Amino acid sequence: MPPYPFSSRTPGRLILAAAGIAVLAGCARNPAGGPGTAAPRLVFSAQVEGSIRTGFESGGTGLPYVYIIALRLSKEDSPVGDGPDPVVVPGGNGFVAGECTHYILWDPLRTPEFTLWRFTDETLNSFEQIGIPISYDNVRTGDDTLRVEVDLTQLVPPSEAEDYVTAQVNFLTMNGTAVSGGGRIWDALGDARVSTEINRPFQFSLRSARTFTNLSLGSIEPSGDSADPDLDLTDWSVEVRRD
């Protein structure tokens, strides 16, 4: 399996695809008539110490690093189980382990660059793309932050949206998604240098509007716990919006 299996497009193909699709500078949105406002909207932001690696930096390989927002949506107030968790040693699907139902992928080799995905089995080895976010900030080479907004009805059937009461989130960064071999560099919520801190997804309620930040939660994600500054998470936030 190649180190970046999410996209097989080369930069040349990307240029051809981009020529046929207009992307708004700074922000992209779904067309009018998208999901309604009854269900919560979730705004995720993650910042790294260095910059988001697009692959087109000076000396870059043309392939980006992998940045994923992994989610577990639940209809229970206190769901059992652990996750989403980072893949520390290559294995499994190469990018997320534990309990996980959905994820948001940033991939500059796609148009649009953010896509929504759903797991279709409990082993997390089968997944399908289900849409694109409500909005997101376009990432330029040298930027250090990812920001994306989704409506809950994009992830679950609208008729069931209000049945979901909690979510767990983890911000995952890695230099590739190989399922074997070495050379894995990664980061996720928690202190990656401490074994008991490796699996530390954050759980929050979907029923009330609130903003959670790394600082407000005691800086559970420290800086300096990844060897590569372009993967080293230093700040993050989750905002639940209810109109």
Keywords:
243 residues, mainly beta, seven-stranded antiparallel β-sheet, six-stranded antiparallel β-sheet, 1 helix
Task: Give a quick precis of the structure.
It contains one helix and 15 strands; from the N terminus they run H-E-E-E-E-E-E-E-E-E-E-E-E-E-E-E. With 243 residues, it is mainly β. Residues 7-26 and 28-37 have low confidence and may be disordered.
Strand content: 25-35%
Subunit organisation of the chains: single chain
Q: With helices defined by DSSP (H or I, 4 residues minimum), what is the helix count?
A: 1
Q: Topology as H/E string?
A: HEEEEEEEEEEEEEEE
Low-confidence blocks of residues:
7-26, 28-37
Instruction: Name the shape in a single word.
Output: globular
The count of strands amounts to 15
Distance between the termini: 43 Å
Largest sheet: 7 strands, antiparallel
What structural category do the secondary elements indicate? Answer: mainly beta
- The number of domains is 1
Mean pLDDT equals 87
Radius of gyration: 17 Å
Fraction of residues in H or I helices: under 10%
Description:
This protein has one domain (40-241). Helices cover 4% and strands 31% of the residues. It contains one helix and 15 strands; from the N terminus they run αβββββββββββββββ. It has one helix spanning 11-19, and strands spanning 28-29, 41-48, 66-74, 85-86, 96-97, 102-106, 114-119, 127-131, 135-136, 145-151, 166-174, 186-187, 202-205, 210-213, 233-241. Strands 3, 6, 7, 8, 11, 12 and 13 form a seven-stranded antiparallel β-sheet that branches. Strands 1-9-10-2-15-14 form a six-stranded antiparallel β-sheet, with no helix packed on it. A two-stranded antiparallel ribbon has the order 4-5. The radius of gyration is 17 Å and the shape is globular. The termini are far apart.
